[in-house]
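tool_call: predict_structure(chain=1)
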Amino acid sequence: MFGRSGKIALLEKVPLLAGLSRRQLQEIARLADEVDVAAGKRLASVGDVGSELFVIIEGRASARVNRGREVILGPGEFFGEMSLIDGGPRSATVDAATNMRLLVVARREFWELLRVAPPLALTIMKTLSRRVRTAEASHST
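tool_result:
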């Protein structure tokens, strides 16, 4: 695990956080926990209540939706935001495909994160929109 300055240096390398100010990155470092996860660990299960957002720093995760479609997520990508936004159940099962380093933001800190770094809200909305369109396209085929 990194100290505060090491954590900020790590955050500066995350594409999701590109363009944020040093002050915003300091706030994110305060709000997010850094977690190392072993390959094979279940991070989220379809239908469970979600209580955190995960941002991948290192490693890869396998996300599977009910229809069996699998997506590999890598550094800079995130998951868990839908449950935080709408309070609904998780829409995918996500497992660590490799050893991973994650930033984890709990529900309460998620809303604070969007307040201190408004550009993240736009990125999250764009990603949600893309995921819905992809799901709709695969459902209609």
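agent: Helices lie at 4-11, 22-31, 81-86, 107-116, 119-139. Proceeding to next step.
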